[in-house]
Amino acid sequence: MPHPARPTVTLREVAAAAGVSVATASRVLGGSARTVSAENARKVLEAASGLRYTADVAARAMRRESDAIALVADDLTTPSIAQVVAAMERQARTVDAFVTVSATGGDPGRQLETVRTVCAFRPRALVITSSWRATTAYGTRLAEELRAYERRGGRVVIYGDMEAPFDAIDVDDRDSGRLMGEHLAATGHRRIAVLAGTRERTFAVARTAGFLEGLIGGGVHPHDIRVLDCPVSRAGGYAATARLLEENAGEFDALMAVNDTIAVGALSACRAAGVDVPGRLSVTGFDDIPLAVDVTPRLTTVALPFAEIGERCIRLALTSGQPGRPGVRQTVSGRLVVRRSSGGA
């Protein structure tokens, strides 16, 4: 249904309500790099929220619900999110909608400003992915923006681990990680190194916890498990594995990575060091990206249904709902895929 036009609130009115200059209000709401005191920023944000102010871009937008479904993602360069986006586009086309995409780099402040700008264009629905731990202040302000957007007739869907009262699709990373830990323990591995990514990434923390649960439950002693932080990238996996092999040659019989990209880097480091995989060291990943079957040896991993997740996001985003009601949370789980990169200890 088309949205009725509402009176336009000007920046000058926001400034007057906040008791600051128009320039100060513009700096706060326009994302200027110039410094504004915390107190003035608070006054401006409260005034803007109370007056339901949106940036001038909204005035240039059409005064009706568009056919766009906006995706605001942390990172668009990962193979996993590429599969999700492709599935979203396919599903959106079935209802004559289209998907717009923005990336925030995992920065909470940038995420907030991106959501504020995207909502001003009045998309039909908004899908947000998040794998980073957001600060409480930014999380509260983001939730306020999203609730206001829903009050104006929009739909919000969260993909990932974000505590908010909106519809959400979440991956049970911990339980899925436990499958891999149980598998390695059952195949006789007893000395394990975990490439755990960074602790700001919620999926990495959950998968690591699942790995440990499965390993220890399968009889691996906690003292024989080493957890290493590393950048969530191929280069991060390579560097961490190279360092591990140089410092602890012969100490471990398996290496677990919290995603396939890190695992591919680990395989490259093993090859460079002359370490046989899986004869000397088993290597496992998580996600089952297309590259997992192209590397040598093919990667043992936990497969996640990224195409299904993308389709579910669109279907949920197009489902009519009541603003303010408790969010519907759907959970998907991974499945263990055993290939040649892991063997018996």
UniProtKB/TrEMBL annotation:
> What CDD domains does its record include?
PBP1_LacI_sugar_binding-like
Gene3D superfamilies reported for this sequence: 3.40.50.2300, lambda repressor-like DNA-binding domains (1.10.260.40)
Q: Which InterPro entries match?
A: HTH_LacI, LacI/GalR-like_sensor, Lambda_DNA-bd_dom_sf, Peripla_BP_I
Q: Which residues form the HTH lacI-type domain?
A: 9-64
| Molecular functions per Gene Ontology | DNA binding
* Any Pfam family the entry gives: Peripla_BP_3
| Keywords per UniProt | DNA-binding, Transcription, Transcription regulation
For this entry, the protein name equals LacI family DNA-binding transcriptional regulator
Organism lineage string: Bacteria, Bacillati, Actinomycetota, Actinomycetes, Micromonosporales
Q: Which organism is it from?
A: Actinoplanes flavus
* Domain of life where this protein originates: Bacteria
Q: Which PROSITE patterns match?
A: HTH_LACI_1, HTH_LACI_2
